[in-house]
Sequence to fold (480 residues):
Amino acid sequence: MRSGQGVIAAVVVLMFLAVGTIQARTVDVGGARVETRMAGKVECVPLSAVAAALNGKYWRVDNRFVMVLPGDSARPGREYVLRADSTCALCDSRRVILPAAPVLDSSRLYLPVVALPDLFPSTSVPDLTTIDTARRGDTLIFTLGGQCRPGEKFAGFGDSRSSLEYRLVIGARRDSGLGQQIALLSLTPPGMLKTVTLDSGTGVSLGFSFRQPAAERLTVLQDRVELRVWPRPDRAIKRLVLDPGHGGEDPGALGRNGTREKMVAMDVALRLKKKLEKQGFEVTLARDTDKFVSLAERSKCGNNRKADLFISIHANSSANRAACGLETYFLSEAKTDWERVVAARENAAFDTGESSAGLSADGDVGLILADLAQNEYLLESSELAARIQETTVPYARIKDRGVKQANFYVLRNGFMPAVLIECGFLSNKSEEKLLRQPEHRERLAEGICRGIVEFAKLHGPKADGSQTGGSDPRALKSKS
Ligand SMILES: [Zn+2]
Fold:
């Protein structure tokens, strides 16, 4: 695996993970082991578990929770009054200010781990005492000392998409020395680190910002948490145009239950846009409202935006009600009757209105020139279609009708790899039902997104700025 690919693969893996699952652990509460869990972004223990572990009782009075722990020969009994969202608690009628407020979730009260020592003096909660930095090549390694556990983390682009912002909330108390170490680190930030801040709030909240797009990996070890950050090279494929088919007076295909293709295409495109933007792509929609946009304008949108990829999204229809599944097209002469049928239907908008202007006004010459524009990207387009087909079929669990080719006007004039996806058949009863489900459209968008990311990975630049190619040697050529 080339290093560039490794980096992007790591980013992809990271991006596809939801907020990481945090390993459960136990803390010692007054001599009993209690398992922690995340309540929102705060590492907590349920009040019920604490009461059970200490043979106590608890009950709720309005918005207050009262817990009574029995005494023994060694110590007297104790009584607590706790309130959700309030850092003020009572312990044997004595006021205690907690570093973090208890959390109410599904009418259960959760106590933040960082607040336990103030309530149960013999509790030991890890302090976050040290932050060390080291460099290994381009990689910056931050080591957070102590048995701390990361709670919420956030990694995203900075303002200009030319940097990385990273925030980490840790279920530990901060040591007074930590603030000094961080102040020191900010004075002489190593490598690509721009700033690091220690924010107040529950537990320890660290904010990092880096000077350039970067990939990151967080590892939780027994005695420390490691954050590794390394530069992520710019992708060769950055700008995408998504073209939700039809719109306005042109509803596209109609399902038997009245589902309109233009709505399905728009919804999948919007979901896909969101996902692709999360992956760092710049995404433009060829139409962003329910209006009629000519095929020529859609195609022009790709060129005007200097898009690296053009993706047109549609839903299928057939006189054969049994027909179902996903097919992805690239521009070429149709080889089968079916491909011609689909192209004829999708090109119908071309025959109406002013949509032909600028496309074939020059008659045959215009068509030949248009074909030449796409000819150059034929292999890449077919490869992109294959990636999308490969990733979407299993993810959305639909029938694979394969990569197909036909003469779509909307793909003809683009100076970039371009594909048209038929997301399923509105003419098929069960597939129409599926296409009406937001969850299914989400899966389609996720599958398509993965295909595009896979494709971009194969056509991304290496760390030295030169490009790595897929199977097509023309992918090596830079597009200016
Ligand atoms: Zn269509």
User: Anything to note?
Assistant: The domain at 126-231 is CATH 2.60.40.3500 (Immunoglobulin-like).
